[in-house]
Amino acid sequence: MTALRSHGGREFSYVAAALAVRELAKYQAAFAIDVAAHNALGVGHPLAAGMPRSTNPCFPKLTDRHVAGLGADRT
């Protein structure tokens, strides 16, 4: 959710992402934890501290909704 559009993300602010996770947690707490962890650890840290040569190859795979993972489109 918080990844830049140029990396395939939605470019949500951290507040918007937190509100989305909070709303999701009302119905599926375990899934909300997975979404929050994916956004914080899988996307947040590389965005904050990663170098372009290492983040550019991985972000299309982390944020593409056609790749199996959170929010994957299996059609």
Short description:
The radius of gyration is 12 Å and the shape is elongated.
Please describe the topology of this protein:
Blueprint: H1 14-25, H2 29-49, H3 52-63
Helix pairs in contact: 1-2, 2-3
Question: What would CATH call the architecture?
Answer: Orthogonal Bundle
CATH-defined superfamily:
Acyl-CoA dehydrogenase/oxidase, N-terminal domain
The secondary structure category is: mainly alpha
What helical percentage do the residues reach? 55-70%
- Quaternary structure annotation: single chain
Q: How many domains make up the 3D coordinates?
A: 1
SSE string, helices as H and strands as E: HHH
Number of helices: 3
For the largest beta-sheet, the strand count, sense and barrel status come to: none
Report, as a whole number of angstroms, the end-to-end distance. 21 Å
Kindly state the mean pLDDT as a whole number?
75
Total count of strands? 0
Strand content: under 5%
CATH class: Mainly Alpha
Runs in which pLDDT lies below 50 for 5 or more consecutive residues are: 68-75
As a whole number of angstroms, the C-alpha radius of gyration is: 12 Å
Might you state the CATH topology name? Butyryl-Coa Dehydrogenase, subunit A, domain 1
What is the general shape?
elongated
Features:
75 residues; 3 helices
Detailed description of the structure:
The chain has 75 residues and is mainly α. The chain has helices at 14-25, 29-49, 52-63. The longest helix has 21 residues, at 29-49. Helix 1 (14-25) runs antiparallel to helix 2 and helix 2 (29-49) packs antiparallel against helix 3.
